[in-house]
């Protein structure tokens, strides 16, 4: 996900405590499990902030494994919360859920531009969204949020584990999606385990750094911005 990071005063500590508690409660509902069968439809989801006060969330739905585009939708609305580190999901999720509701073709799994459990409290946007929708989700992020890793090999498909430096907990996979480009960070969300997330990410690569679901979601976000300006 693309985040707007405005300057300003520290967030309200009462709000932070409330959202942190909600995040903990959502985490209790999180499940990591393989998909019951290979997906027929896979969605990509991305959000951006056209202005400091507005958010645009996009879903694309593709056939799998052909990756033929089936549907694209967006929702544009006000940003409900200020930027609070570690709690960005609450800033994005309401608008993302409204975008999802517009889909005619409901996907079997959602690839989110952001983190799943590779988050300091194991509840990035992919995990958060999965629990809210009770849908299989996983995250594919461009930057590390937490954890440590050894640089994977230079070739497409090379990968290495992303782990918690203190506990050794496996958080995700650091995946080279294209020869000699910076790697992606894949992590499980809800109702989708890490091996499934990694395999689907590899299955959605078509010569670009980003897998097609999130690449096309990002592309259409730029197109849809023209409609809301």
Automatic annotation (TrEMBL):
> Which Enzyme Commission number(s) are on file for it?
3.1.21.7
| Reactions catalysed, as given in the entry | Endonucleolytic cleavage at apurinic or apyrimidinic sites to products with a 5'-phosphate
> What cellular component terms from Gene Ontology apply here?
cytoplasm
Q: What GO molecular function annotations does the UniProt record carry, in alphabetical order? A: deoxyribonuclease V activity; magnesium ion binding; RNA endonuclease activity producing 5'-phosphomonoesters, hydrolytic mechanism; single-stranded RNA binding
A GO biological process this protein is involved in?
Answer: DNA repair
Subcellular location per UniProt equals: Cytoplasm
Q: What sort of enzyme, by top EC class, is this?
A: hydrolase
Which residues does the annotation say bind Mg(2+)?
46, 113
Tell me its cofactors.
Mg(2+)
Q: Name one Pfam family in it.
A: Endonuclease_5
Site positions (Interaction with target DNA) are 83
Sorted alphabetically, the keyword list is: Cytoplasm, DNA damage, DNA repair, Endonuclease, Hydrolase, Magnesium, Metal-binding, Nuclease
Q: InterPro entries in the record, alphabetically?
A: Endonuclease-V
The record's function comment reads:
DNA repair enzyme involved in the repair of deaminated bases. Selectively cleaves double-stranded DNA at the second phosphodiester bond 3' to a deoxyinosine leaving behind the intact lesion on the nicked DNA.
What's this protein's name?
Answer: Endonuclease V
Tell me what organism the protein belongs to.
Hymenobacter setariae
């Amino acid at each position: 996900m693309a985040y707007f990071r405005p300057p300003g005063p520290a967030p309200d500590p009462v709000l932070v405590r409330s959202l942190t508690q909600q995040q903990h409660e959502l985490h209790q509902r999180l499940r990591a499990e393989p998909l019951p069968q290979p997906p027929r439809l896979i969605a990509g989801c991305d959000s951006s902030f056209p202005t400091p006060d507005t958010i645009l969330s996009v879903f694309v739905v593709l056939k799998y494994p052909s990756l033929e585009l089936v549907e694209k939708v967006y929702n544009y609305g006000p940003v409900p919360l200020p930027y609070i580190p570690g709690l960005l999901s609450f800033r994005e999720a309401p608008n993302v859920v409204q975008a999802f509701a517009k889909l005619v073709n409901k996907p079997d799994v959602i690839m989110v531009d952001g983190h799943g459990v590779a988050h300091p409290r194991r509840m990035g946007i992919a995990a958060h969204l999965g629990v809210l929708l009770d849908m299989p989700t996983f995250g594919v992020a461009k930057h590390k949020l937490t954890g440590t890793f050894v640089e994977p090999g230079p070739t497409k498909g090379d990968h290495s584990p992303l782990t918690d430096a203190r506990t050794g907990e496996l958080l995700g996979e650091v995946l080279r999606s294209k020869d000699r480009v910076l790697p992606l960070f894949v992590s499980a969300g809800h109702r989708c385990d890490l091996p499934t997330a990694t395999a689907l990410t590899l299955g959605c690569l078509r010569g670009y750094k980003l897998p097609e679901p999130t690449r096309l979601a990002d592309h259409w976000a730029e197109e849809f911005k023209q409609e809301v300006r």
